[in-house]
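Re: [ENG-882] Designed sequences occasionally contain unexpected residues at chain ends

Forwarding the minimal case from QA. Structure tokens:
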């Protein structure tokens, strides 16, 4: 009894779990499926990952511009803008800006729950066969700067959990051969619709003559626009490309200060993604008319000057005055002869 038995089992030790412990509850409504490629992304910041999750959980048509997101989230506009650029660089977001005929700039915005670089062109499933994953689904049309995003709508019942780093796709319905829509060539009695004419390319105005002084003035004017607005800092190639258009303005009588005010006045408050394109648009659309040619002063027609009248001596006061015939001066003619 007094000796220690080394072969006896020791007291059971309490195991302390290491790492995280998951307590999962099955969601039946209001949930969003997110791939591990986004949740465990090694290059995205936590702000960008959380913002991508927030955008994917929104309904289609929700406002996702920087100001709307900053109003809903505690992050500021600077962090949200940086996170949007991260998502766009890694393929989780795409934004395409276009200009309407009215001059208003609109944005097409698409959100991807699978980055475009990881989406395979065709995924074969044993049940549904090959399916196609479109790279860029077409948008409904021009929208405002805060364009709606394509967010996956949750179904009524969650399906089986997707495998990590796998895309969730849906099969594209195939129409039967008998119900296929006829092509314009096969439609009887109808001529094919003519192809729309391409829009004319916008060309910058070009100067009429080669003037080195005006070229230097135009280059200096464009290179110094960033002093008026830091967003108008142009690359050297853009300065040389836009300089002939500025020279055309100067040749039409526009002062350099007037050209500067036209290019820098009324700029939008948001970020300028393509300042050179904005300046090219203003130089093209706001080009002043040509002034009528003015003859030099030596070639202008002057009226024929009449010869001066000869000097005459007044018969009344003997004072010299100019008149075609001898007689009395103006002062003597105002006095009657009787008074004289």
């Amino acid at each position: 009894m007094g000796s220690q038995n080394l072969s006896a089992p020791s007291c059971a030790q309490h195991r302390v779990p290491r790492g995280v412990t998951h307590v999962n509850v099955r969601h039946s409504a209001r949930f969003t499926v997110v791939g591990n490629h986004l949740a465990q992304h090694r290059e995205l910041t936590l702000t960008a990952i959380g913002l991508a999750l927030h955008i994917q959980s929104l309904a289609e048509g929700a406002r996702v511009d920087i100001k709307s997101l900053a109003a809903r989230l505690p992050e500021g506009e600077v962090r949200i803008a940086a996170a949007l650029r991260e998502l766009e660089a890694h393929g989780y977001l795409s934004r395409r800006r276009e200009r309407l005929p009215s001059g208003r700039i609109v944005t097409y915005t698409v959100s991807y729950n699978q980055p475009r670089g990881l989406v395979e062109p065709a995924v074969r499933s044993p049940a549904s066969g090959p399916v196609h994953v479109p790279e860029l689904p077409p948008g409904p049309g021009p929208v405002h700067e805060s364009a709606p995003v394509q967010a996956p709508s949750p179904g009524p019942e969650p399906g089986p959990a997707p495998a990590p780093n796998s895309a969730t796709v849906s099969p594209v319905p195939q129409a039967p051969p008998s119900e296929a829509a006829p092509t314009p060539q096969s439609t009887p009695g109808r001529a094919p619709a003519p192809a729309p004419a391409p829009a004319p390319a916008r060309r910058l105005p070009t100067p009429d003559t080669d003037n080195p002084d005006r070229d230097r003035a135009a280059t200096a004017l464009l290179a110094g626009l960033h002093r008026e607005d830091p967003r108008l800092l142009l690359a050297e190639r853009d300065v040389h490309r836009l300089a002939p258009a500025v020279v055309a303005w100067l040749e039409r009588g526009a002062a350099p200060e007037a050209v500067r005010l036209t290019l820098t006045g009324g700029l939008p408050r948001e970020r300028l993604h393509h300042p050179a394109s904005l300046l090219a648009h203003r130089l093209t659309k706001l080009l002043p008319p040509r002034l009528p040619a003015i003859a030099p002063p030596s070639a202008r027609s002057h009226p024929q000057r009449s010869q001066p009248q000869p000097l005459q001596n007044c018969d009344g006061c003997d004072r010299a005055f100019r008149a075609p015939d001898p007689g009395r001066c103006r002062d003597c003619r105002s006095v009657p002869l009787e008074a004289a």
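QA comment: On inspection the terminal residues look reasonable. Residues 119-153, 160-187 have pLDDT under 50 and may be disordered. Proposing we downgrade this to a documentation issue.
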